[in-house]
Amino acid sequence: MSHSSYSSIEQLRHLIKDVEYYYKEDKPTLEFYGTVKLHGTNGGIGYDGTNIWVQSRSNIITTKQDNMGFAFFVESNKTYFIEIMKHIIANNKIDIMNNAVILFGEWCGTGIQKGVAISSLPRMFVGFDVKVVPNEDKTKSYYIDTKIPELINDFDRHIFNIHLFPTFNITINFNNVKDSEEEMNKIITQVEKCCPFGKTFGINGVGEGVVFRHYYDSTSRYIFKLKGDEHKVSKEKTKIVIAPEVIASINEFCDTTVTEQRFNQAREYLYVSNPSLPTYGKTLELSHISKFIKWMQDDIWKEEMDVMTANNLDPNLVYSEMAKRVTTLVKNLCRI
Question: Looking at the predicted structure, is the pLDDT value of residue 278 above 70?
């Protein structure tokens, strides 16, 4: 029984770069299958044939050290989740003696996030992916093709399968991605205006975005996310970004990356979803500034390094400006 995190979902421009690396000349045309991206907190349910455990994005959690009540929810539905895991194992012929299986989804609803349609719904778990993790070599982990039909919606338990809600299909010719730009823009604008998942439950309101997947064999995939403008952690100039943007200065770069959305993600990481951290369950303090700066730096370096290199922005100078802005954000909140 050990934690295995959900893989980061790339932005489209990162995927384009990967495809260009592997296909030097004639690039593929691929069909992508999209599901609604829900704005909550990542949750995982692990099973090894004997033990069942519960995860946040970064830790194993328990009913005593929980993440927004998710561990308690799983414990309350433990028998049901074990049956789901057994179906997944049987239907996909997984060798459970040598592998663990993790069902990933979004724990979302009232009080978990705000500013989206699903914030008005009761708390629920919405499954979207299944990961197989070998006991001996976790680097060989893989995801099962994601439609997971064996995960049956249960309205009374508030357990759902994202693949049984409205989905989207898009064809991308990687020789000329701009040909698909209009269709992608149409989809993400539609979802941001009215969340298809929320609308199914009679709730009209903002949606976060769409996650697109393409499996090029049974265990390997391309995956990317598109978010509406209100939920991007970086504020790009265009809705569909297919290449690193031209940035005139370090100040402009920090204007687009040191955002409220990214800062709120840091707060969730530090205080809500990671029981192993010394800040877990505590309130924001000035003494925590360095922890915010470290989280923001790691996330910006991971997501935006291609923009920095494309614009020849000195990381040390970026760090200095970013740290000033994060310090100001923390100080302002501490005064409230």
Answer: yes
CB-count burial class (<10 Å; 0-12, 13-18, 19+) for 97: exposed
Stated pTM of the model: 0.88
Closest CA to 161 of 169, 174, 151, 175: 151
Among 33, 31, 11, 12, which residue's Cα sits nearest to residue 178?
12
Tell me the pairing of strands 220-227 and 10-11.
parallel
The ranges assigned to domains in the chain are: 10-230, 244-335
DSSP string, 208-261: -EEEEEEEEETTEEEEEEEE-GGG-SS--SSSS--SPPP---HHHHHHHHS-HH
Q: Which residues have a Cβ under 8 Å from the Cβ of 202 and sit 6 or more positions away?
A: none
Residue 15 CB burial class (10 angstroms; 0-12, 13-18, ≥19): buried
Cα dist. 44→4, 47, 58, 314 in Å? 9, 10, 10, 38
**Class of the 10-230 domain?**
alpha beta
Per residue in 92-123, pLDDT (tens digit) is: 899 999 999 999 999 999 999 988 999 999 99
